[in-house]
């Protein structure tokens, strides 16, 4: 009987996962084709239009996550949420285990900026969202650094996944140096965020229909804010050297923090 109930539950989550992804895609197209084009007409001020677009994205993500919770597709918890919501003028660096990490974080950060790959501009489901929100495009280094410095100075929060792509299950976390370089060269503090998923789902090697035997639970642990002056002194260090050292520190903190988080969650599952 238990195995039958488990099979029915898994089949239900498979169907609901498909419906949720269809909802996500339709929502992205609707925002891009209708709402964001309407904003271009009714709001001529670029800064206000960008703010409205980002808040719309955040609201739509909250709705999507509510649906996934109600249908039993997944569940999640965010620890130290107030620190994340109130963050300003800072880089938020997070590991990237699944496809919906950005969705979870942006749902509670209604005005966050985000670093995205230029390849995503060719994706019809998200390209309109990226342009309307005026997200930073990870392309040429110097223009990107100038844009980051300007946005951080005006109080924007920039969300970065320094791995550059989703983590491969079973492999060690390896960070690219982009986030550390921006922090050093722009003089920006960093807020660390650890994301742990209890099941293998939506990772680099999985398809959307690879449904785990149990409902996935995401734990988002918002960690301390790192003061850049603890890692870089322009009078004593070269920026490139400081960026390498900071990157190693971030990689160590993310790796050790995730091991602790995974151990806590595994112990909770067994109790």
From TrEMBL:
GO MF annotation list: 1-acylglycerol-3-phosphate O-acyltransferase activity
Transmembrane feature ranges: 12-42
Pfam family of the protein (one): Acyltransferase
Keyword annotations from UniProtKB, A to Z: Acyltransferase, Membrane, Transferase, Transmembrane, Transmembrane helix
A single BP term in Gene Ontology: phosphatidic acid biosynthetic process
Pathway the protein contributes to: Lipid metabolism
Domain Phospholipid/glycerol acyltransferase: 90-198
Keyword Transmembrane: yes
Keyword Transferase: yes
PANTHER family found in the cross-reference section: 1-ACYL-SN-GLYCEROL-3-PHOSPHATE ACYLTRANSFERASE, PHOSPHOLIPID_GLYCEROL ACYLTRANSFERASE DOMAIN-CONTAINING PROTEIN
Name of the molecule in the record: Phospholipid/glycerol acyltransferase
């Amino acid at each position: 009987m238990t195995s039958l109930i488990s099979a029915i539950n898994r089949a239900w989550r498979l169907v609901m996962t498909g419906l949720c992804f269809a909802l996500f895609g339709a929502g992205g197209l609707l925002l891009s084709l209708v709402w964001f084009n309407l904003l271009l007409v009714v709001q001529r001020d670029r800064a206000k239009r960008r703010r409205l677009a980002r808040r719309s994205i955040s609201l739509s993500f909250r709705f999507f996550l509510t649906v996934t919770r109600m249908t039993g597709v997944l569940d999640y918890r965010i620890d130290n949420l107030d620190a994340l919501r109130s963050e300003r003028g800072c880089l938020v660096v997070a590991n990237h285990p699944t496809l919906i990490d950005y969705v979870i974080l942006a749902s509670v950060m209604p005005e966050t900026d985000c670093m995205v790959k230029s390849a995503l501009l060719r994706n019809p489901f998200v390209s309109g969202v990226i342009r309307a929100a005026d997200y930073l495009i990870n392309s040429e280094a110097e223009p990107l650094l100038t844009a980051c410095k300007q946005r951080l100075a005006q109080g924007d929060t920039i969300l970065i996944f320094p791995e550059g792509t989703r983590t491969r299950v079973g492999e060690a976390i390896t960070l690219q140096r982009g986030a550390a370089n921006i922090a050093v060269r722009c003089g920006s503090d960093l807020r660390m965020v650890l994301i742990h998923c209890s099941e293998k789902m939506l990772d680099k090697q999985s398809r959307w229909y690879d449904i785990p035997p149990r409902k996935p639970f995401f734990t988002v642990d918002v960690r301390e804010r790192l003061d850049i002056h603890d890692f870089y002194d322009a009078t004593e260090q070269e920026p490139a050297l400081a960026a390498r050292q900071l990157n190693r520190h971030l990689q160590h903190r993310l790796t050790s923090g995730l091991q602790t988080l995974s151990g806590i969650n595994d112990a909770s599952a067994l109790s």
